[in-house]
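Next comes a concrete protein, fold included:
___
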Amino acid sequence: MRMLIIIVAGFALLGVSWFTGRWFAIFLAIWFAVAAINMWIGVTHAGYTVREELPIFLVIFLLPACVAAFLWWRLPR
């Protein structure tokens, strides 16, 4: 459930960053940091190993990032 909430937050951040200049680069940098912090929390506080958290990190980061890349590619700049 927590993973779904974080992914939805990523899409919300994408929606907010859509209205700023250079939204793609800003979004990717911020979203990577948020996903990395989530992974760090999972490793340090929840007791998971990096090996267990890495696939979750990739899903959390890549879903909104791929949508952002698709929008950047398909929409006029």
Remarks:
- The chain has three helices and no strands.
- The chain has a mean pLDDT of 92.
